[in-house]
Amino acid sequence: MNPKLNKLIIDLSRSIGLRSLYFSGHPFVRDNCLQIIDDLRSLLSELESESLFIGIVEGKLIHDGHYLVGPSIMGKQLVEFTKKLHCGGLVLGKDTTIKEIEVLLDLATEWKIPIGSLQEARALLKLRGVHNIELATHYTAPSALVSQEDKVVWHGKDSGGHLHSPLLVYQALFDVVAKAHGNVSLDRSIDINGAQSVSEHLLYSTRSNFTDMLQFVHYPDYDVYTVGHSVRVSTLAVFVGDHLGLDDEQLLDLGTAGLLHDVGKSKIPSEILFKPGRLNDEEFSTIRSHASLGAEILLEHKESTRMQVAAAWGHHIRYDGGGYPAPPPWAVRSHLVALLHICDVFEALTAVRPYKPQLTPLAAFSIMLQDKGAFDPALLHAFVSTLGIYPPGNRVRLADGSQGIVVVAGSSIDKPFVQITRDKTGTAIPANEQQVLDLAKDTSGTLEVTELLFEETP
Ligand SMILES: [Fe+2]
Ligand SMILES: [Fe+2]
To answer: Which terminus of the chain, N or C, has fewer Cβ atoms within 10 Å?
Structure first.
């Protein structure tokens, strides 16, 4: 997967989301359009091509005959958009201008109902002066276009009544959080029951297919309303909570609480939330108010649980009582909120963000362990040993040169179980021949993990 293409799709999709919240020409929207043009030019010069074709087949993004796994999560808005326009994809020419991207985004936002036909959509674009972006027709025989091998990725396992692939679950989680944040920013109510039912799918997927699930957890995003952050915090919390033996009811509550814990951020003015420079004291306290604001919002919903309210309110409170907001002396710390606090900090440290480097889990653990009094020590210990320094879903390289995906933490934190996906020469191993190795059982030293691979990072 080309990281530049990856980034372009993320930026395009993010722009559609931004445009639905801000007016055309808003600095946020404009900056994103500029970014898209930059991404496009740099990608096209690398590919030595005059135009870029991003297709949609069966609701998924494709490029060059391959489904794009990661970007299809991020690119959901883009897929929805092309549906509205009745097209099978977009062709972006090398001379595409910011104005043309803006018109495209206006179309995505202004036409709430599908346009009558592809011809009509094409005519609308031309009428608005867009000449470097073309709407592609639908494929009549998509299977001929996409390699059958790649299709396997999408079908998941039969899971009776549950969403079939972890990708769909991840997408549903993403949607539910994005909608909750969008609704809060517009003073509308949140679909708490929807969040709860998605949590059920999350729990099922975490148990049956958690390696795949956690692979998506590592997918980078720069989402405006920390949507990706909330999804990842929730997934981590459910995964670790399940290992700690929490019952289903608690896990569902925990998953929902994780999805909604930062919902109060939607009430913070975006100039402060996304201010690039240093914040003054007043701005800091405004940002910190997201915790109590989130709790107030959830309290207004009768379907929300006490735990969810407590999580929104207390996820920045330290084990020693520091952090914010100041807890009253009689407050009792919930184990579940303490776990969410750990997941929240771990996610923030290991996430890809434009303003900071991505830390390895090991570096994040070491910062967290050194911050005495921040976390419940027993819980932090359990968290570290459940994830290990190479958490499930991560790609790693072994000392003999082979590569694989961590499927489960092992008996020691640096010796996980790894499914070998590439041999010593870097050649991909067919899915049905991939072996899972317990690195703790290796005594030769040739199967130590030597590197954590961030392949998908743009
Ligand atoms: Fe927060
Ligand atoms: Fe958070």
So the answer is: N
Long-range contacts of 178-181 (CB under 8 A, 24+ apart): 178/17, 178/223, 178/225, 178/227, 180/259, 180/260, 180/263, 181/225, 181/227, 181/263, 181/265, 181/266
CA nearest neighbour of 130 among 95, 158, 162: 95
pTM greater than 0.90 (yes/no): no
CA of 351 to the centre of ligand 2 (A): 12
Decide the pairing of beta strands 449-453 and 60-63: unpaired
Q: How far is the CA of 290 from the centre of ligand 1 (A)?
A: 7
Concatenated DSSP letters of 57-107:
ETTEEEETTEE-HHHHHHTHHHHHHHHHTT-SEEEEETT--HHHHHHHHHH
Q: What is the CA radius of gyration of the chain?
A: 23
Q: Separation of 244 CA from ligand 1 center, angstroms? A: 23
| Ligand 2 center from residue 7 Cα (angstroms) | 23
Q: Which ligand is nearest to the CA of 316?
A: 1
CA distance 15 to 78: 9
Closest ligand (CA of 265): 1
For residue 325, whether the previous peptide bond is cis, meaning omega lies within 30 degrees of 0, is yes
pLDDT, averaged per 10 consecutive residues of the chain (458 residues), comes to: 76 76 76 90 92 82 70 67 83 93 82 72 88 80 41 30 61 81 85 86 80 64 67 92 93 95 90 82 94 95 94 95 86 90 94 75 94 95 92 88 88 89 90 88 81 61
CB neighbours of 127 closer than 8 A, spacing ≥ 6? none
Question: Ligand nearest 289 Cα, by number?
Answer: 1
CA of 180 to the centre of ligand 2 (A): 15
The Å distance, Cα 374 to ligand 1 centre, comes to 15
How far does residue 189's CA lie from ligand 2's centre (Å)?
20
Neighbours of 424 (CB within 10 A): 12
> 376 with 338: CB under 8 angstroms?
yes
Nearest ligand to residue 312 Cα = 1
Q: What structural domains does the chain harbor?
A: 3-152 (no CATH), 165-386 (1.10.3210.10), 395-453 (no CATH)
